[in-house]
Amino acid sequence: MYSPGEPSREKSENRTRKKLQREAILGFFFGFTLLAFIQAIINFLRPNPAVFPAVLLLIFILIDLGLWRWYSADDA
C-alpha cells in the first residue's frame, strides 16, 4: 500500500524510465565520440593531417561534457 513517506510506484517507474533514456542518449554520443577519436588518431598519423577530425572530436567532447553534467545534475 501507499504510505506518505514513500514515492509511489508510478513515480519510481517514471524515474527509472527517464534514467534509462538519459543513459541511452549519453551512450549514443559517447559511441560517436569514440569513433571521432579513432578518426582523429588515424588522421594524425597521415602525412598531411586535416583539421576537421580534430574539430569534430572537440565538438563531440563538448556535447558529451554537457550531457554528462545534465545527467549528473538530474541524479542529485
Write the layout of secondary structure elements.
Layout: H1 9-44, H2 52-75
What would a concise description of this structure say?
With 76 residues, this protein is mainly α. The protein has two helices and no strands.
Folded structure, characterized:
There is one protein chain. It is built from two helices and no strands. With 76 residues, it is mainly α. It has a domain at 32-76. The longest helix is centred in the middle third of the chain and has 36 residues, at 9-44. The two termini are 27 Å apart.
Mean pLDDT: 87
* Tally of separate helices: 2
What shape does the CA trace take? elongated
- What class would the helix/strand composition place it in? mainly alpha
Biggest pleated sheet: none
Order of helical and strand elements: HH
Please give the alpha-carbon distance between the first and last residues: 27 Å
Rounded to the nearest angstrom, the radius of gyration is 19 Å
Amount of helix: over 70%
Low-confidence stretches: none
Number of strands: 0
What proportion of the residues form beta strands (DSSP E)?
under 5%
